[in-house]
Amino acid sequence: MTGSECGLGITVWFTGLPSSGKSTIAAGLAAQLRDEGLRVEVLDGDEIRRNLTPDLGFSRADREENVRRIGHIAMLLARNGVIVLVPVIAPYAQARDKVRAAHAESGVKFFEVYVAAPADVCADRDVKGLYALQRAGRLTGLTGVDDPYEPPAGPELTIPTHVQTVGESIRSVRALLPT
What we know:
The chain is of the alpha/beta class. The protein is 46% helix and 13% strand.
């Protein structure tokens, strides 16, 4: 099924703590979906901040605005037949709920995937060195440590990446999507 054959695309929104595995799962899933001949775009939170929203900081208002902007882009792409994978922290439930509502208003499917790994596991992974910077006192406002993270109340899927392989996680998300 190509984008034109399936009509509307889908947004798969990966949320979780830093270093929980969001981007790793999204990248692996994107490769698999492309191998299947599907139209896929990954809107990675770090890339978006670097290239599209460098004007935003990390205050609550700026984080919510970042999520709103990413959600809007995802909706536009999905509305045009693209499967959009969005690995972003998106720490606030209300901001994620607004993105979900905007998708619903546009008739676009939205799946929230909670990439659930305990903070100590994420700190051990520390892919970007953020936890080390926070422990050294050189970073404040780290989501899940000294800034809040609100886990989703009703995600379509929860992935416990601390007890599941990357391959198992990718297969779990793929099973959500239409074939």
